Amino acid sequence: MERPDWCPYQDCICKANSQSQVCIGKLPKPEPHENDFNTHRFCLDERETKHGIHDLQINWSDAWNMIRLLNLVKE
Questions:
Q1: How far is CA 17 from the centre of its chain?
Q2: Considering its fold, how many domains does the chain have in total?
Q3: pLDDT 10s digit of each residue in the chain, 75 long?
Q4: Which of 8, 21, 46, 56 is the most exposed place for a label (fewest CB within 10 A)?
């Protein structure tokens, strides 16, 4: 998968991007977070609305909760 041009995080391995607005990458090494480790970075390009680029370091628990919440959109 190709890293979007706007992505400033050259150290992570780009796994996917959608519409050149959202990308997910694997961190080069897990980052400690509370009682767990973040393994990936989820980035959203909102420069068009003057909000910049949002960077969330996440792990599977975070991803599962995002999936659970986003599934409500289809209801």
A1: 9
A2: 1
A3: 788 888 889 899 999 999 888 999 999 999 999 899 999 999 999 888 888 889 999 999 999 999 999 999 987
A4: 8
Give 27's contacts (C-beta < 8 A, 6+ positions apart): 11, 12, 38, 39, 40, 41, 57
Evaluate whether residue 8 is within a structural domain. Answer: no
Residue labelled with tokens 């041009």: 5
Domain that holds residue 58: 13-74
Q: Is 7 part of any domain?
A: no
pLDDT of residue 27: 97
- Is 36 part of any domain? yes
Residue 18 resides in a domain: yes
Alpha-carbon torsion (7, 54, 14, 35), positive or negative: positive
